[in-house]
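Posting this for the archive.
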Amino acid sequence: MPEVRIAERRIWVADESRALLSGEVHFWRLDPAVWPAVLERLRDLGLDIVSTYVCWEFHEIAPGEFDFEGTSNPRRNLLGFLDLAAQRGFWVLLRPGPYIYAEWPNSGVPERVVQRHRLHPRFVAEAKVWMAAVVAAVRDRLATHGGPIVLLQADNEADPWIDVYGSQLGLADAPGLFQTYLESRYAQIAYLNEAWGTSIETFAEPRAVQSPAYEPFKERYRDVCRFRHWYATEVVRWTAAEYRRLGVNVPIYANTYIDSAVQDWRSLASVCELVGPDTYPCSGMADRPDEHRGLLDAVRYARCCAPLSFIPEFESGIWHGWHRWVGTLTATHSELNAFSAMLAGASGWNWYMLVGRDSWYMSPISDLGRFRPELAPAYADIVRVFRALDPPGLSRLCDTAATFNALERAADPESGQSVLRALYAADLDYAFFDLDSGGYDKPLLFYAGGAGISSEQLLRLRQYVEGGGTLVCLQPPALDGLAAPPSRVATAAAPQRLRLNLGVHSVELSSDAVFVYADDLGEPIVAERIAPLPPSQEGGHSHVLLPIGERLHVGYARPVGRGRLVVLGVAPDPELMLAVHLWFGVSIPSRANSPRAQSALFERGDEHFLIVTNTAPEDRDVLVRLDLPNALPHSATDLRTGRDVVVVGSGVVVNVPARSGTAVRLD
C-alpha cells in the first residue's frame, strides 16, 4: 500500500511527488461526453492534478440512498470520472463536504438537513450517513489503494453562519452552544464576570455581542470571535476524525476565508494535515494596495501554519452575484494573481473554477471543453513559469517579520495594518511571526498589533527578544512588562515635519500623533522639528519657524537578554521602515525602486530567482536592488519572455507588464 504524505512542500505518493497545482472541475455539472475533452484541456495547460466537489444533495436519490455510478443519471457517475482521471494520469483532490457551497441549492446539503447548524446532533448524524456512503464508494480510488485521490477536504470553509443559525447557537435571547462554550472557557462564573464586568449568576445568562460598536462590550465581542474560531475548528475536527475512522488514509485538508475573522488557521491545522485560504480579489485589485497586500499576507500567514502554502480556491472566474462586485476578470488579472501568490511564497494552488459551469463566469475552459482564447494562453504561460520556478523547491530570502495575532485580527481587522502598509509601500518583504506559536528566527520583527495580546503571546515576544531578536514597536499600546507607555503625546501633523536620527541614518516624516517617552527607559531616540512642508500658512513667516530645532524623545532602545527592544512613538512610514533596516544592518534581499512594484528573492541551491509584480497601469522597467548572499549576478533571464535582463551595478532592470508580473533567473 503506497504511502501518501505532504513533505518538502509537495504531495508524495510513495516515491513520486508533484507540486500542488490543480484546477477545479465539477464533473456532475458537465455532460459526461465532454469529460475527456475537459481533462485534455487541463493537460494542455500543463496540469496533472484535478479537484472536484462531491455534492451530497445531488448524489442522494432518497434519504440515505446514493448513486455514485450514474445509474439514475449519468452525471452522478463519480466513479467513472475518477477512473477517467486516473487513466489520463491525473491525481485528484476530492471535496465531499458535507458542505460544498458551490452555488448549489442549500450549499450542497439536503433540505431536511440544512435546517440545523453543523455541530447540531441531528446534522452530524445525517452527515455521517453521507460520509460513510461516499467513503465506501471511493475507498478503492484512494492513492493508498492505487487510485488517483491524493487529498481529501474536510467540509468547506467551516463557518457557524451566525447570521442564520444565531438563535440555535445561543447568540440571541435563548442559551445554546455559545453559553456551553463560555462555560468551558471560563470554568467558573466569577472569571466570566471579571472579564465581562458583569454580575450574572449562571452560564445560561450571558448574551452575545456580535459587533464591536459599543466599547464597554469589547471583551464580550472578543468572546464571540473566539467562539467562531472554536466552532470552525470543531467542524473540521469531527469531520476529519470521521473520515479517518471510515478509512481515509490520505492527507486531509481544510480551506478558509482569506482573513481570520471566522477561522483560526493554526487551530484548524492542528486537526488536519493542511490548511489554506480561498482568494477572490476584485478586478481592480491592482489599484487597491490593501487588497493586493491582503492576498500576499494570506499566503504569508499560510506559510506560518501549514507544511506548504496552498490556496484551495484560487480565483479563476467568479460566481453569479459576486461578479457585480468583482468585475470582469481579464487574463492580466489572473497573471497578477499568480505572480503575487508566488512572490509571497505560495507552493501551489487550485484554480477555481478552471472549467466553467452553471452560475460561473470567466473560466479559461468552457463547459464544452474548449479554450477561451482571451484567457487560456495566459494560464498556460503561468503554468510554464511555475514549472520553471518550481516554487516548492525554493527558499525565500527574507530577514524581516511582522507579528500576526489571529484573534485580534478577527476582533479588530484594522489593528496593526499601518505597519504592514508601510512595509508594503517600501517594498520590504516580510514573513509573519504568529503570536500563537512563535518560533521565527528573523533578526528583525515589527509589532503589528494593538493592546489585544495575551500573557502567553507577550511571553513569546519576550522570548524572541531575549533570544537575540530585535523587536520594533511603533506607536504601540503599552505591552505590560515589555514596552512602557508614553509620558505625553504631541503632534507633528503635516505640514509639520520631524527628523529622526537612527544611528548614522536619518529620516524625515510627519506624524499626526507623536508619543514622547521618559529619558530613563533606555537609550533615547530623539527627533528634531524641522521646517514644515511648503506651502505653509499664507502670511506666516517667522512664527511658523519657531518650533524648528525643538527636540523630542520619541522613543528608546534598550537591551533585553541577547536582543533589544526599540520603541518609536511615530506613525509607521515607508522611509522609516527602510531606515530601521539600515540602522540595524538587516539585509534587504530585494527592493524595487519603482512605486507600485513588489519583489521577493528566492534561492535553490546555488540558483537565485526574483519575482516582481507591477500594479501600475503601464509597463515598467523596474530597477530592483539586490543583496545576494555571495555575489551579484553577472546575467539574468526573464522566465516569461526568455529575454536577457539588464544587470546594473547591484541590481537588475526588469521589464514588467502593466498590472501583471514576471520571474527572473539570476546567473
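Residues 170-224 form one domain. The two ends are 43 Å apart (CA to CA).
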